[in-house]
Design goal:
Mean pLDDT: 96
Shape: globular
Low-confidence stretches: none
Distance between the termini: 17 Å
Strand content: 5-15%
Helix content: 40-55%
Number of domains: 1
CATH superfamily: Aldolase class I
Number of strands: 8
CATH class: Alpha Beta
Radius of gyration: 17 Å
Number of helices: 12
CATH architecture: Alpha-Beta Barrel
Order of helices and strands: EHEHEHEHHEHHHEHHEHEH
């Protein structure tokens, strides 16, 4: 049985004090959600203090990072390494988010090195894949996503994939207010699981958690999470308000 994961990607929002206040407000709201895993991914500047707050409070909230540089150390100004994140008790690391692919020009080969580095550091990648509106309208959505998976998981073994998280985020639904229909979301998540089965085996496909992301809100979370191949959500804007994020996380509660 795959335990759903509801992860909040705060992006470039919340300074350190605001991040701490949000976690303080969120923690009691999700404390009783035993059948759902909840994670928050604050900006790098808040990771250390949020990590301490989670540890000191005994909260079950998991800590995630929004990105990583695939090197242990070196002359990489402005970058953050996997060991730095591991030292802060980070559990999850987002890799390949469309905003980094589209805005920062990150290619699949670079994303693949991040996935490998996160695994080697003992953390869990949340690998993001997804298509543009033009690619979907041209009938190339599945081809685009499967190509990303093939490239990004090139250096990963089946047992490692089984423990990973994959997030399907149609680019046209991120921060736009548009949401893939339940049929769209289930269709792509099912296609991802079939691709994993063909590439890494049925057991791996049965274990890997596949999330949906893209304008997930309290009003649509339950319908999306009820679908067979959707094992949680990567939440953007709605994760910035404790009550909204807790409502999404409590879809089964």
């Amino acid at each position: 049985m795959r335990k759903p994961l509801i992860a909040g990607n705060w992006k470039m929002y919340k300074n350190n004090n605001e991040a701490l206040e949000l976690v303080r407000e969120l923690a009691p709201l999700v404390a009783d959600l035993d059948d759902v895993e909840v994670a928050v991914c604050p900006p790098f500047t808040a990771l250390a203090d949020v990590s301490r707050l989670i540890a000191d409070s005994g909260s079950s909230i998991a800590l995630g990072a929004q990105d990583v540089y695939p090197g242990d150390e070196g002359a990489f100004t402005g970058e953050i390494s996997p060991p730095m994140l591991k030292a802060l008790a980070v559990t999850y690391v987002i890799a390949g988010h469309s905003e980094r692919r589209e805005l920062m020009g990150e290619k699949d080969g670079f994303v693949a090195t991040k996935v490998r580095a996160v695994l080697d550091a003992g953390m869990t990648p949340i690998l993001c894949v997804g298509e543009t509106l033009e690619e979907r309208e041209a009938g190339n959505a599945a081809r685009k996503v499967e190509g990303q998976l093939a490239a990004d998981l090139e250096a990963v073994e089946a047992a490692e994939v089984a423990g990973m998280v994959i997030a399907y985020e149609p680019i046209w639904a991120i921060g736009t207010g548009k949401t893939a229909t339940p049929d769209d979301a289930q269709g792509m998540n099912s296609a991802i699981r079939r691709w994993i089965a063909a590439s890494f085996g049925d057991d791996t496909a049965a274990s890997v958690r596949i999330l949906y992301g893209g304008s997930v809100k309290p009003g649509n979370a339950a319908e999306l999470m009820a679908l067979e191949d959707i094992d949680g959500a990567l939440v953007g804007g709605a994760s910035l308000k404790a009550a909204d994020f807790a409502a999404i996380a409590g879809f089964k509660a």
